[in-house]
Amino acid sequence: xxxxxxxxCVPVRHAEGFANHLQKTGVEHSESTPxxxxxxxxxxxxxxxxxxxxxxxxxxxxxxxxxAGERYQIAVIYPDxxxxxxxxxxxxxxxxxxxxxxL
Length: 103
Fold this sequence. Notes:
By secondary structure, this protein is an alpha+beta fold. It is built from 2 helices and 5 strands. The chain has helices at 15-31, 61-68, and strands at 2-11, 36-46, 49-58, 87-88, 93-96. Strands 1, 2, 3, 4 and 5 form a 5-stranded antiparallel sheet that branches. Strand 2 and strand 3 form a beta hairpin.
């Protein structure tokens, strides 16, 4: 299994709007892609910024490429991301995972 991780943050005043936007874009897009095994978002407030961590789980690298394209190491961006003043990490990470267990 491949776990793909992304991080971005928005000013706190845009947090709820961006949470809805992320659900309708990154989460729903990934979950609708064949080979996706799930998508999970974690939020963390630090001062005036709301951080979003998105982890998507994939059957294999081909499924990741079906979602993100051949340049799958680059973050997928969506129309209207800018309206939330999103600061997105430009790169994402893919991790080969054999098992998932709670901490």
